[in-house]
Amino acid sequence: MEKKDTIQSIADRDMVDDLFVISNAEIREGKRGQYITCTIGDATGTMACKIWGVNGQNGLVAEVYAGISEGMVYRIAGQASLYNGELQMSVNEGIRH
């Protein structure tokens, strides 16, 4: 997969599907269940990322979280948006194997 999206080139509302390094991953509890918060990055910078699970998938979210290795490259497909004045990536389709 050839990299086409860089952190520096991503703007509000951009749809992104590319490879990024994951760091600072944590599992959190939200109103609709568990989700993963992390930082994604490449040579041009870093950005916050939320990987949302869907109702009833807490076990799957925990399983995916356990499989994340800090500093490894993962395919991230989501949409960038401004949240509290900061750009972040949201993976909204839940987690699928």
Q: What does this protein look like?
A:
By secondary structure, the protein is mainly beta. The protein has 1 helix and 5 strands. Strands 1-2-3-5-4 form a 5-stranded mixed beta barrel.
Count of helical regions: 1
Approximate shape: globular
Helical content class: under 10%
Structural class: mainly beta
Mean pLDDT equals 89
Give the N-terminus to C-terminus distance in angstroms: 20 Å
Low-pLDDT regions = none
Query: Strand order within the widest sheet?
Result: 1-2-3-5-4
Q: Report the strand count.
A: 5
What is the element string, with H for helices and E for strands?
EEEHEE
Q: What fraction strand?
A: over 45%
Largest sheet: 5 strands, mixed, barrel
Features:
mainly beta; 9% helix; 1 helix; 5 strands; globular; 5-stranded mixed barrel; 97 residues
Q: What is the element layout, followed by pairings?
A:
Blueprint: E1 15-30, E2 33-42, E3 45-52, H1 58-66, E4 73-83, E5 86-91
Parallel strand pairs: 3-5
Antiparallel strand pairs: 1-2, 1-4, 2-3, 4-5
